[in-house]
């Protein structure tokens, strides 16, 4: 039935995306649009569509497909697309949501929270947002000192700020210590 067609269309679109063929992925979604009746299937198709549109370089349009999708998978894809578009203020805001509230005084952040805070600090550096960085240091500085990546957080969030030449090297070190997982990598793991 139409629901099956919509699901097969989503799988076909993912196969095209995994092969680097965004145009064909969008065609597969468009030709099977009518059957997507469950919220889960509509959300999955919207994410695939957003990734394909982003692959074509249409970042704002891709992000619009994710409006209202606040589940972890949607947030991770939003973050990936915002990074692709180099919208570091938006990246920092998405990571702030992911980081949540600091742990109780004297406690270390979880590994996931520490990574989110470190990536948020990196995004704030790239955005040139010294005020946001001061707020982040104030909220998470003590907790981050108890994390496994305290030294990187200290470097990235240093009050003196980073020279433009240092930023690329720092971003590389952060990404090596706390790598992002892309939408397509996550999908491949499900297979």
General description of the model:
The chain has helices at residues 2-18, 22-30, 39-55, 59-64, 72-84, 88-99, 111-127, 130-144, 150-156, 164-177, 183-190. The chain is mainly alpha-helical. Helix 1 (2-18) runs antiparallel to helix 2 (22-30), helix 7 packs antiparallel against helix 8 and helix 7 runs antiparallel to helix 10. The longest helix has 17 residues, at 2-18.
Summarize the structure.
With 191 residues, this protein is mainly alpha-helical. The chain is built from 11 helices and no strands. The mean pLDDT is 86.
The profile of the biggest β sheet is: none
Structural class: mainly alpha
Number of strands: 0
| Model regions low in confidence, pLDDT < 50 over at least 5 residues | none
Q: Would you list the SSEs in sequence order as H and E? A: HHHHHHHHHHH
Helical percentage: over 70%
The shape is: elongated
- Provide the gyration radius in Å: 19 Å
Strand coverage percent: under 5%
Query: Roughly how many Å apart are the termini?
Result: 24 Å
Average pLDDT over all residues: 86
Given the structure, what is the number of helices? 11
Keywords:
mainly alpha; 11 helices; 0% strand; single chain; 191 residues
Architecture blueprint of SSEs:
Blueprint: H1 2-18, H2 22-30, H3 39-55, H4 59-64, H5 72-84, H6 88-99, H7 111-127, H8 130-144, H9 150-156, H10 164-177, H11 183-190
Helix pairs in contact: 1-2, 1-3, 2-3, 3-5, 5-6, 6-7, 7-8, 7-10
């Amino acid at each position: 039935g139409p629901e099956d067609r919509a699901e097969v269309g989503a799988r076909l679109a993912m196969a095209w995306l995994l092969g680097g063929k965004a145009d064909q992925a969008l065609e597969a979604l468009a030709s099977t649009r009518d059957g997507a009746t469950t919220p889960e299937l509509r959300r999955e198709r919207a994410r695939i569509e957003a990734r394909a549109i982003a692959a074509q370089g249409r970042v704002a349009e891709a992000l619009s497909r994710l409006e209202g999708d606040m589940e972890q998978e949607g947030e991770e894809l939003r973050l990936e697309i915002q990074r692709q578009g180099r919208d570091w203020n938006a990246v920092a805001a998405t990571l702030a949501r992911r980081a949540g509230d600091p742990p109780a005084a004297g406690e270390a952040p979880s590994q996931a929270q520490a990574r989110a805070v470190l990536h948020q600090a990196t995004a704030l550096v790239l955005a040139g947002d010294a005020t946001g960085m001061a707020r982040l240091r104030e909220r998470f500085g003590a907790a981050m000192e108890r994390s496994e990546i305290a030294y990187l957080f200290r470097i990235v969030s240093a009050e003196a700020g980073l020279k433009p030449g240092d930023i690329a090297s720092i971003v590389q070190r952060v990404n090596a210590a706390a790598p992002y997982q892309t939408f397509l990598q996550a999908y491949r793991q499900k297979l």
